[in-house]
Write a structure and sequence with these properties.
Archaeosine Trna-guanine Transglycosylase, Chain: A, domain 4, 5-stranded mixed beta sheet, globular
């Protein structure tokens, strides 16, 4: 299964890990159009909050991509959380 890596803000990482956010949005721009065109669903999406070695991250399986031209975003449907690193699920914050 192919894997795509990108960054994410901490508030959205928190919501995804807690299971409250099931759709990740990315703007319809040439960068994302090219990256998503080469993928077949399902694929893995690795979301990192920061650029350090201990940055919190989550890897999820994306089951479906929907291009919403009206809103101007790709909608990536999150299926399952595959793995979580450097994140305390109980306290919903980074591991120190």
């Amino acid at each position: 299964m192919k894997k795509v890596t990108t960054t994410i803000q901490r508030q959205w990482l928190r919501e995804i890990v807690a299971g409250r956010k099931t759709v990740e949005y990315r703007e319809i721009k040439p960068y994302w159009t090219k990256r998503l065109a080469s993928l077949d669903c399902p694929f893995l999406l690795r979301l990192i909050n920061g650029m350090t070695a201990k940055a919190p991250e989550v890897t999820v399986r994306v089951d479906r991509i929907r291009k919403n031209s009206r809103s101007g975003y790709y909608e990536l449907r999150i299926g399952k959380i595959v793995e979580v690193h450097n994140w305390d699920r109980r306290r919903e914050c980074p591991v120190k």
